[in-house]
Every structure is written in structure tokens, then in C-alpha cells.
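> call design_seq(struct)
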């Protein structure tokens, strides 16, 4: 699969890299999602003056698999991403990345076309469901949902078609009946509902919420963490402070996200929609017991896994 090829190639690249000495900057990856809100506001304050004397160089990515490729390929030192891509990387390149902390729990929602008839996971049979990309956290969460109802994706011999659709393209994909439903990261699912393009699927959302899957985690390359322990410790501390601030002040997160979105696209999302999506997630450095193991199970179900993942890799190791 394309994802496997990307990760395998990145593994070969990093295996051939030398170095490992102290860095002169922290190259930090993130997404333009409200689930990365602590990173967005943290870059304004907690990380603005650098980390243990190292300036922070931000890089924005469109998906977790892309960011993992940059981490393993040596062009990125640390990053905010979903647990799915991290688990897949660990299954194919064990020990190359280090889980530092949780960031946000929740932050993904199932929406569907109003006349799709989708009310429960069982109703996804024979339907087309959008996810942002193959191998990302929404894709793996969808595989868990299907497995819970005895269903399978089409690439696993089942009849549920899993369709990669960029978040920005979801409105048209639903309007044109390209897909019947979408498992989307915040705030894109909430936006589709607010704009009347789709309706929420509460029963499925409750099932996802019960699993307490992180939307965002913080990782670093093992090479960077070993060579730069003070900067790594400073990153963990700055993240904890930004997470606490995001928990206290949703409005700050919403406004910073909109400012960044406007810089990137010239558009903004209604502030009420952003605040509603933020209310449905929890900024926290903790990771619920068993949540990461669910991602490992999803990787196995999907056929994406390259091998066993050590339980030790599923627990934050900040130092």
C-alpha cells in the first residue's frame, strides 16, 4: 500500500542518516486543526522564545502519514499528530519515535447525508465513508467501528468503501453523493452540520467517545530526544502549559485557529462552530489506559501494521 511504501522508504532514509549531535533548532510539525489548538497557541507564547535556547521552526502538514514521513526521513525533530500514524510508524520503524505526551482527547465526529439512513455503525454496510487519508487516526477509528459491528472495509474484503477526502473537499463530496458519510476531525464535522450539509450521528459519536482515543499526541524522534534532552524536556513542559491554557480558554484557541486559517486560505470558520467543537474535546497531557492499544488493534485489523508494537512505546516517555 502507498502508506506502507512511504513509511518503509522513510525508514530506509533515516537508517542511513548519520549525526545525532545537538541541534541548532527544534523543527516542530503540526496540523491546522483545532485539535492541535495547544500547539497553535503554544507557538505564540510557551514556545515563542525557543526551547532551552533552541528556536522553534514550525512546519504545517496536511496529514499524519505525511508528518511521520518527515519525522522518519530526518527533516523534522518533533511533532503534533494523531495516534494512528504514530502506531503505524512504530510497527514499521520501532524505536525511531518517542511518545512524549498527550495533547487532546476526542475531536472526531461522524456525520452523514440526511437521507443516507445512517444511524448506527451497522448502517454503514454498503456505504461510502470519507476519512482525511488512509492510515490516519480517523481511518483507523473507522476500522475499529466496523469491526465492532462485524463489518469490513472494501480493501479487507468487506462492503464499506473507505474514501480518502481532504477536509476542505468534504462539503462537495457529500453534496454530490460521492460519499454517504464522513468521520472528520474537528472542526470540520461540526462545520458540515452547521452549514446544513450533513447531520450528526450521535450513536456512533458516543461509541467513539467511550474509547477516549486521543485526537493529538506529541512525539519526537528518538535521535533528537537523546541528543537534546534539555530541549526535549522544555518542549514537554511548554506543551503541558499550553494544554492547560487551552483547557481554560477555548476562545483563545478558536481565535488563534481562525487567524491561522485566514492567513492560509483567506477564510474563517464561524466562532460558534469552533467553540462547539472545542467543547466536545478535552485538552489533556494524559492518555487514557487502553486507548493507544486500540490503535494498535486498528492497525492490525486494517492490514496496515508492519509488525508488533511494544507496550512500552504506547506510554509517554518524556525523559
Amino acid at each position: 500500500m502507498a502508506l506502507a511504501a512511504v513509511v518503509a522508504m522513510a525508514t530506509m532514509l533515516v537508517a542511513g542518516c548519520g549525526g545525532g549531535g545537538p541541534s541548532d533548532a527544534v523543527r516542530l510539525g503540526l496540523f491546522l486543526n483545532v485539535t492541535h489548538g495547544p500547539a497553535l497557541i503554544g507557538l505564540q507564547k510557551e514556545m515563542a522564545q525557543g526551547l532551552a535556547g533552541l528556536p522553534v521552526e514550525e512546519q504545517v502538514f496536511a496529514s499524519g502519514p505525511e508528518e511521520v514521513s518527515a519525522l522518519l526521513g530526518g527533516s523534522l525533530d518533533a511533532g503534533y499528530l494523531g495516534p494512528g500514524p504514530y502506531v503505524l510508524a512504530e510497527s514499521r520503524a520501532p524505536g525511531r519515535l518517542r511518545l512524549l505526551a498527550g495533547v487532546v482527547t476526542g475531536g472526531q465526529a461522524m456525520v452523514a447525508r440526511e437521507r443516507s439512513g445512517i444511524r448506527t455503525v451497522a448502517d454503514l454496510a454498503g456505504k461510502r465513508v470519507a476519512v482525511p487519508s488512509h492510515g490516519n487516526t480517523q481511518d483507523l477509528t473507522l476500522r475499529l467501528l466496523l469491526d465492532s459491528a462485524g463489518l469490513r472495509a472494501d480493501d479487507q474484503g468487506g462492503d464499506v468503501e473507505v474514501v480518502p477526502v481532504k477536509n476542505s473537499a468534504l462539503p462537495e463530496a457529500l453534496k454530490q453523493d460521492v460519499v454517504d458519510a464522513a468521520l472528520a476531525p474537528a472542526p470540520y464535522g461540526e462545520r458540515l452540520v452547521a452549514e446544513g450539509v450533513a447531520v450528526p450521528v450521535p450513536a456512533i459519536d458516543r461509541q467513539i467517545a467511550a474509547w477516549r482515543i486521543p485526537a493529538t499526541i506529541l512525539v519526537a524522534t528518538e535521535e533528537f530526544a537523546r541528543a537534546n534532552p534539555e530541549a526535549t524536556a522544555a518542549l514537554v513542559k511548554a506543551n503541558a502549559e499550553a494544554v492547560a491554557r487551552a483547557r481554560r480558554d477555548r476562545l483563545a484557541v478558536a481565535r488563534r485557529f481562525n487567524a491561522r486559517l485566514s492567513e492560509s486560505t483567506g477564510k474563517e470558520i464561524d466562532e460558534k462552530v469552533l467553540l462547539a467543537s472545542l467543547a466536545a474535546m478535552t485538552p489533556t497531557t494524559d492518555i487514557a489506559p487502553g486507548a493507544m492499544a486500540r490503535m494498535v488493534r486498528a492497525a492490525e485489523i486494517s492490514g496496515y501494521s508492519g509488525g508488533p508494537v511494544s507496550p512500552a512505546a504506547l506510554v509517554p516517555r518524556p525523559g
